Amino acid sequence: MTKNTHKLYIPFSDYQYIGGPATFMRNLEIYLRQAGFSCLGNPQQAKVIFFPTATYPRLLRRVKSEGGYLLQRLDGVYYPSQHGEEYARMNQPVEQIYREYADFVIFQSDYSRRQCFQMFGEKSEENYCIIYNGVHKHLFFPTDSSPRSLPETIRFVTTGSYRKAAMLEPIVTALDNLKERFNFELWVVGPLHNQELAHFFERDYLHHVGPKHTAEVGEILRNSHIFIHSQLNDNCPNAVIEAISCGLPVVGFNSGAMSELCFFSQELLADVADELFHRYEDFDPSKLAEKITLVIQHYEHYQELARSHSYLYAFEECGQQYLTIFQRYLMKRRKMVPYMTTRITRGLTKVRRIPSKLKNIKLGD
After folding, report:
1. Architecture per CATH, 154-313
2. Averaged pLDDT, 119-134
3. What average pLDDT does this structure show over 233-260?
4. Number of neighbouring beta carbons within 10 Å of residue 33
5. First-residue to last-residue Cα distance in the chain
6. How do 250-253 and 269-270 pair as beta strands?
7. What percent of the chain has pLDDT over 90?
8. Quick one: pLDDT band at residue 85, thresholds 50, 70, 90?
9. By the 8 A CB rule, do 50 and 8 touch?
10. What string of H, E and C letters represents the secondary structure of 247-304?
11. What angle do CA 80, 86, 88 make, to 5 degrees?
């Protein structure tokens, strides 16, 4: 460890795959490096460990036994309507860390907080905060010359990794209902992971451009007019943040954190059931079609509104909030408390204080 390395360990190497947590970890690693903030390359000397969702139980036990701090980043939970009877078992590793290990929890949105509070129990205000995701503004920004009115052919766009019908079918069904009224095309950006959805791509107006690099996604967004998003119970969708940063009006369903991210144009979100966890049946394509019609009819207004809020969700601001939390816990001092552990399901542990008469007994790992 060099003199300027902080006693913070972040398992960046565990997040090399594709997905929201991996994107966040790459962005955070870049931000910290550019900020001149150096972390430990391994956890052996760590005083503070930060991780998304969950990490190795043995590592958590050791850090806690040495008086260290654990910072957990959470998006959402597994829930019955989406994950069936196995949801409780699937939640167990995350829930146990949340309840018994985490000194501080960072939620991606207030919706994420409400999910976890309902399923895992509440945290006191001093032990959590909300930090929205961010994007790099040199990649996602509005075009300099956006049309004041829509052209003859409207370009809708949606982005994501298409695994479930809820991500695509409501959009296509809504547009099917509008194709006699408006001229348009729909650009679908991202990989198709579920071949059962392939028949939706057969529409004449739909152009599947497949996966693209981040800079290419930003360019496609700037060359589009309206962004459409459809996702059940999304905690903080990066796709929506990217669209907002490019100054696009966003249309979708009022599910998950959508009303938080699009607080300035909530009227473009189709109503759903007044529940925390929505089902696919709650997504009514006819209501989505009404919102698409609304933004078309008042495009100049919603375009100006979107562009005036494109400054939101910069990763520089997001990263600074994380850095502030890291520095706060690196400065904390806590009296070391001996622990012993009892193994429970899936290799996790329940932590309890060791009676004073047992403190001289050597603990195993």
Report:
1. 3-Layer(aba) Sandwich (3.40)
2. 96
3. 97
4. 11
5. 24
6. parallel
7. 77
8. confident
9. yes
10. CCCEEEECCCCHHHHCHHHHHHEECCCCCCCCCHHHCCHHHHHHHHHHHHHCHHHHHH
11. 75
Contact 104, 322 (CB under 8 A): no
What is the four-CA torsion angle of 95, 98, 99, 103, rounded to 10 degrees?
170
3-state secondary structure of 364: coil
**CATH of span 5-134+316-358:** 3.40.50.2000
pLDDT above 90 for 354: no
Q: Alpha carbon of 34 to those of 30, 46, 316: distances in Å? A: 6, 21, 10
- Position 162: which residue type? Y
| Token representation of residue 7 | 């006693």
DSSP state of 363: P
Residue 226, phi then psi, degrees to nearest 5: -140, 135
Classify 11 as helix, strand or coil: coil
The pLDDT, as a whole number, for residue 340 is 45
Residues 6+ away with beta carbon under 8 Å from 242:
135, 140, 159, 217, 218, 221
Domain ranges of the chain: 5-134+316-358, 154-313
Q: Report the C-alpha gap between 74 and 130 in whole angstroms.
A: 10
